[in-house]
Design brief:
alpha+beta; five-stranded antiparallel beta sheet; four-stranded antiparallel beta sheet; 29 strands; about 20% helix
Length: about 425
């Protein structure tokens, strides 16, 4: 299997509504869902008469998130902020770096009394709020806020085909992603270091997205040719929306290996141990996560989990983890919220069945009963590559073991 990175530039407004197309003033998703890319590929293959059902079963189309190009260099990757990312309420996003509350919250909940709630406040006594409805990126080894897409209202009117004039009562106003994004300088909105420049000017840039595909080695050339033939994505293409330019800069294999996951999980465990020791020194009950490994499974996209193959569930249980990896672990905490997802089958021109899913940014925190060895980390690497849950070919169920947001240098503790 190979990973094909996708660099997508909007040439016209884009619309990816979560609800049915007829809903007025319904905002678009702020990213390009993998299902839209998956459907466009299916339509291209069907038009060429070479649709291969076996290929589309193993294909993985990941979501494409808002990215930036600085000095002709794309972001290394873009991911949604985890649910544990918090910031002061009403703060200026340009000057405040989101803080990861994962370590403090988990260790706090293992102290006594457990009724205490971890809730940092600002100088005015207002609690910090979640900052997870955003994206972050890596550019030249520096973490920063990824560019946020801007949406605008488009007014459209239906035309009567017989009279050639506007149809009475057929005026509608969809919301779409603008093809141009207003960027604010300084260019790097840092999370791990302060910006040295205080200049702030605005400039317009094309709206860009960064995603990827996982394809079999034998189908690489065919998929690359299909991507070159895709010119539109999303809804309302007949009304002038959805024009895109897709570029596949180069082909690369998955660089993630067992050593990388083992390094991130080791660093995460050490930070848990240090935080637990700090709380114990302040008078809390001693909770020492020693002689073990703590790791997280971060949801990089919406995830559809089914229990016993049919019952929607909100938990990736230790039993499911053992079945997938053979690792015996305890679920310390889950940070998840549910949502309803649907979709439109482009190839069949029919709506997809709705399902209950876990929203992107959620995570599951596990504590292994034994320290993870190289074989365990290799199994986690396979799990990260394959994803979890249903409809993974459409971008659902993409995960990251011990996401970099948790292990890279963090800001000042609240």
């Amino acid at each position: 299997m190979q990973i094909i990175p996708l660099q997508i530039e909007a040439l016209a407004p884009l619309a990816f509504p979560e609800r049915k197309p007829g809903t007025q003033f319904n905002s678009s998703l702020p990213y390009i869902p993998g299902a839209a890319i998956y459907g466009a590929l299916g339509a291209w293959f069907n038009a060429q008469g070479i649709y291969d059902e076996a290929l589309f079963r193993v294909l993985r189309c990941h979501n494409a998130y808002p990215a930036r190009v600085v000095d002709d260099m794309w972001d290394s990757w873009v991911r949604p902020l985890p649910t544990t990312a918090i910031q002061p309420k009403g703060s200026d996003e340009e000057n405040v770096k989101p803080h990861d509350s994962l370590y403090e919250r988990i260790c706090w909940e293992h102290q006594e009394p457990t009724a205490l709630i971890y809730a940092p406040t600002d100088d005015d006594g207002r609690p910090w709020e979640a900052a997870s409805a955003k994206f972050y990126a890596l550019h030249e080894s520096v973490l920063y806020h990824a560019s946020q897409v801007q949406q605008r209202v488009l007014t459209r009117v239906a035309i009567n085909r017989q009279r050639g004039t506007a149809e009475e009562g057929r005026l509608y106003s969809p919301l779409a992603i603008s093809e141009v994004t207003l960027q604010k300088l300084p260019r790097q909105k840092l999370l791990v270091q302060e910006s040295t420049s205080k200049e702030s000017t605005y400039h317009k840039e094309p709206t860009r997205f960064l995603g990827s595909l996982i394809v079999p080695d034998a189908a690489t050339e065919t998929i690359t040719a299909a991507l070159a033939g895709i010119t539109h994505l999303g809804a309302r293409q007949t009304s002038g929306l959805g024009a895109v330019a897709i570029v596949t800069p180069d082909l690369s294999t998955d660089s993630e290996d067992a050593a990388a996951i083992q390094g991130r999980s080791t660093l995460m465990t050490q930070r848990f141990q240090a935080q637990a020791a700090l709380y114990a020194a302040l008078g809390g009950t001693s909770w020492e996560p020693t002689a073990t490994t703590i790791f997280t499974i971060n949801l990089l996209s919406d995830t559809i989990l089914l229990d016993h193959g049919w019952l929607p569930t909100q938990a990736f249980s230790p039993q499911l983890l053992k079945e997938a990896t053979g690792i015996e672990a305890t679920l310390l905490r889950s940070f998840t919220t549910t949502k309803t997802v649907g979709g439109w089958q482009v190839l069949w021109q029919r709506p997809k069945p709705t399902a209950v899913a876990l929203a992107m940014g959620g995570m599951f925190v596990f504590q292994a009963k034994q320290p993870l060895d190289e074989k365990d980390c290799q199994r986690l690497t396979t799990l990260q590559h394959d994803g979890i849950g249903e409809r993974r070919a459409e971008g659902f169920g993409q995960i990251r073991i011990c996401d970099e947001f948790h292990v890279l240098e963090r800001g000042t503790n609240p």
